[in-house]
Specification:
- The chain is an alpha/beta fold.
- It has a single domain, classed as 3-Layer(aba) Sandwich (UDP-N-acetylmuramoyl-L-alanine:D-glutamate ligase).
- Helix content is 35%, strand content 24%.
- It has 11 helices and 13 strands.
- The strands form 3 sheets. The protein has a 6-stranded parallel beta sheet with strand order 5-4-1-8-9-10, with helices on both faces. Strands 3-2-6-7 form a 4-stranded mixed beta sheet. Strands 11-12-13 form a 3-stranded antiparallel beta sheet.
- Helix 9 runs antiparallel to helix 10.
- It is globular and about 60 Å long.
- The protein starts with a strand and ends with a helix.
């Protein structure tokens, strides 16, 4: 099994469904309420684990009921949580999501995720040494992500960075990143070139970027600079939440197979994830992925 180390966020999603969004000062009855485990880091860790990877996670939750529930949920997926810190300085991160008429409004409170420090990564340096690949996102402090890249480099491990939420990245972080996995907006933002053509940006970074493009699949450049397209897998979508996180988790899980094959499997896993509700709820198992690949061969 590939040993994947995930450095990232752990959230509880609080989801309310209503017939309309409340106006300022208005109180409405909602139709349904549910809580879902979330956070891009935790989502990607679960995706990789379900696809057969041996996963460890570095993150931070509050010393509260949500933190205990989320940590227990990760452990139930077989994820090593010894490096998931519990802090009394902040509550577990949450996303308050209101859904109405196929639209949504979201308020994210990072909470304990912003308590994940560089010192916490240094204390977990042995996890970097043991990993085959390191995967990170941008829902924890940027300096912590930069430290993760440094530790991965120090131990000779590939570092995959999903630059979401979108922000401009330093040249040092880009240089120490083995593979960047943005969508089109995240790509132009990460490189500080919002008006640039994505194909030109990919050509300028051969072998260093896989850009996701929704149902169209993913694009990347080979080491020789030629543009490659991994088509999406056609499915009937139910809930697209978590598709990108599934793609990233799968990419890390199958990294050892080489980029073209890892991207193919990641695209298939991402497609399967939208056929069921919930971010983690729709993430496929290895058996489900293999069945789809066999059917579509």
């Amino acid at each position: 099994m590939t040993k994947v180390l995930v450095v990232g966020s752990i959230n509880m999603d609080l989801v309310v469904e209503t017939d309309s969004f409340p106006r300022l000062g208005e109180t409405l009855f909602g139709r349904r309420f549910a809580t879902y485990a979330g956070g891009k880091g935790a989502n990607q860790a679960v995706a990789a684990a379900r696809l057969g990877a041996q996963v460890a996670m570095i993150g931070c939750v509050g010393k509260d009921a949500f933190g205990a529930q989320l940590k227990s949920g990760l452990e139930a997926e077989g994820i090593d949580t010894r490096w998931v810190k519990e802090t009394a300085d902040a509550a577990t991160g949450i996303a308050a999501i209101t859904l109405s008429q196929a639209d949504n409004a979201i308020v994210v409170v990072p909470g304990a995720n912003h308590c994940l420090t560089t010192a916490a990564l240094d204390a977990a340096e042995s996890a970097f040494a043991e990993a085959d690949v390191v995967l990170a996102q941008l829902e924890v402090p940027l300096e912590t992500v930069e430290r993760a890249a440094q530790l991965a480099y120090k131990h000779g491990k590939p570092f995959i960075l999903n630059p979401a939420p979108a922000t401009a990245l330093s040249s040092s972080l880009l240089d120490s990143t083995t593979l960047l996995t943005p969508n089109e907006f995240e790509l132009t933002t990460a490189l500080g070139q919002p008006a640039a053509d994505w194909q030109i940006l990919l050509a300028a970074l051969p072998g260093k970027v896989v850009m996701t493009k929704g149902s169209d699949g993913a694009y990347f450049t080979a080491a020789n600079g030629l543009l490659q397209h991994q088509p999406g897998f056609k499915v009937t979508p139910v809930d697209t939440t978590g598709a990108g996180d599934t793609f990233n988790g799968a990419l890390a899980a199958f990294w050892h197979l080489g980029l073209p094959e890892a991207a193919r499997r990641a695209a298939a896993a991402g497609a399967l994830s939208v056929t069921k509700p919930g971010a983690q709820g729709g993430m496929p198992t290895l058996a489900e992925l293999e069945q789809l690949l066999e059917e579509r061969t």
